[in-house]
Structure to design on (239 residues):
């Protein structure tokens, strides 16, 4: 009996701390893949088939520039390469018959290499005329219109992959005493009115010393096609 009183007093001291609710934490859905596509060249937009909100598959054409000049340069470079290759073939036969010097043959080889480099450069520039989707997703915003002339580096399209979301939240750094990757929590999304099971995927690398907070990232346990990027809600978590 003499140990009963100290134990009861200790439990009484712990009870307020255990009963104290965790502070409310807001969280939002952020796409895992999202990017702003900018122009790699100056030119006029010939095709811009997708409107805001429309879906696309990986590899789909998002935009095409009017590139008759680039196409002509590529055709000319390929024709020059063909001519230089045939000249090299002839000079190789003449060299075997000792009708031309080795220097002339070496010059022909160098000219073929130069022409091949010109073709490669023209192909690279021509590829910039067509912008394809790096991942499946949706168009968030168009920053340009069809037939518009844009400069190099101009923003063209905001796109995102809405099949994969992360949950971002800022929580008190004291939670690091018990919060670890894999910890399960619930997200109550305002826009849908539903509850979604999730888990902590990773924890930010730095604690903000001013607010004494840290950023956490979560993953949904099951896909939820009704969710959209930017939706937010209440994070429900227990130690």
């Amino acid at each position: 009996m003499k140990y009963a009183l100290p134990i009861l007093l200790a439990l009484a001291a712990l009870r307020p701390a255990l009963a104290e609710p965790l502070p409310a934490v807001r969280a939002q859905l952020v796409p895992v893949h999202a990017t702003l596509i900018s122009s790699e060249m100056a030119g006029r937009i010939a095709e811009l088939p997708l409107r805001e909100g429309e879906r696309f598959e990986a590899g789909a054409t998002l935009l095409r520039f009017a590139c008759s000049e680039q196409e002509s340069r590529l055709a000319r470079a390929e024709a020059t390469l063909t001519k230089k290759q045939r000249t090299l073939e002839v000079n190789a036969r003449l060299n075997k018959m000792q009708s031309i010097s080795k220097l002339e043959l070496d010059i022909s080889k160098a000219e073929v290499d130069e022409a091949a480099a010109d073709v490669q450069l023209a192909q690279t520039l021509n590829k910039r005329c067509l912008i394809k989707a790096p991942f499946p997703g949706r168009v968030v915003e168009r920053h340009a219109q069809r037939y518009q002339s844009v400069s190099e580096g101009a923003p063209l399209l905001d796109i995102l992959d809405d099949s994969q979301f992360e949950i971002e939240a800022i929580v008190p750094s004291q939670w690091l005493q018990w919060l670890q990757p894999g910890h399960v929590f619930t997200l109550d999304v305002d826009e849908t009115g539903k509850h979604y099971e999730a888990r902590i995927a990773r924890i930010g690398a730095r604690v903000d010393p001013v607010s004494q907070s840290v950023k956490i990232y979560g993953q949904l346990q099951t896909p939820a096609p009704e969710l959209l990027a930017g939706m937010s809600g209440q994070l429900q978590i227990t130690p």
About this structure: Residues 68-96 form the longest helix (29 residues). The radius of gyration is 31 Å. DSSP finds three helices and 14 strands in the chain. Confidence is low (pLDDT under 50) at residues 4-9, 11-19.
